[in-house]
ATP-dependent dethiobiotin synthetase BioD (Stenotrophomonas oahuensis), 232 residues
Amino acid sequence: MSQGVPFPPAVYVTGTDTGIGKTFSSCALLHALRLQGLRAVGMKPVASGCEMTPEGLRNEDAVALRAASHPMPAYADLNPFALPEPLAPELAAADAGVTLSLPPIRAAFERLRAQADTVVVEGVGGWLAPLSADLDQSHLVHALQLPVVLVVGLRLGCLNHARLSAQAIAAAGATCIGWIANEVDPQMARIDDNVAMLRARLPMPYWGRLPYSPGADPVEMARHLQVPMQQF
């Protein structure tokens, strides 16, 4: 383990909605942590929309997280539940005849923890998107004792979505330790003013803003983040 660089042993990345750049932000975060000398690996416990490859089912987001990880973990540990259909996990799992449960996720997570200083665990959709009929993301966060990082997709409506998400995370008894602004709409008006309003209203620290840059190198994006290296 790296010494003298305190950071939580794992964090859970959630977002204000689906399609707001959780994977993009998680990959940038992984590289930001690696730049600080940490061995950082990603995890996507549940991924729908997987494609069959010669190696088995693979998800684009999970593959990106694996590429941003060091050391590079086994895919089956990074993505223990790979579901073919691009649907909400509850529906995709039912179609695949799979029962989503915590024990396989916990076992994979522990294997990742054993090989890294920190694990960046990416959730599904927004915070309140369920994993199954009886499993919410908050259950996973509590089971693995994960602090939360919120990705705010910068587009019209983000003030409401960000504040509601922050309130829902707190109401679930989880701790949000930071938020990342991610530009998803290059035409958004008054983007600087919106970020300023969010910084004034969200109760957790601001970790930086990722510019709109489709296909950008996550190593370069990492330089836009200011991840606090302090005792949490």
